[in-house]
Write the structure tokens for this entry.
Amino acid sequence: MCLANQTQTPGYNYTSVGMARSQELKEVGWTKGLELPKVARRDGQEFDCATWLHKARSLPKDQFKREVEKELTGREAEPWEIIYFKLYKTQIPIVEQAIETAALMLGTDKSRGYCLEMICADFLAGANLDNENPELMLQSIRRFFKFLPGEQRHAFLAQVNGQNS
């Protein structure tokens, strides 16, 4: 049960999500409990504590995190996974420089994972020029195209349309 007042009552702990029984917070677990304040901060007095506690109890951890992200950003968060690579110390500067260069080209707000994806897409597009798979190259071009600023998009389309005419 969430209460609107902020007085200290036995059996209740003050959290940034409002007043909630200690038992209710224990039920959702600490990882989900860390997500609740994100919505509460945004909603302020309008925060619907009971609904979010219900979602926290009923959804698996990753799905609940995606639900919070969707609520905050207005868009679906893509499922993700952490992968590990073993790199030799001599390889690290090359990989770091490639990711930093991609970040500068794509915009510094892009994640390192996204930068790595674009590096791989560029590599695959070049590697498949000789193969009979133009679909992969077209997919790479589409992904790069959406990150061009407006005037560069128009210039690119003008060049492509000029060559096709």
Remarks:
- The two ends are 68 Å apart (CA to CA).
- The longest strand covers residues 12-15.
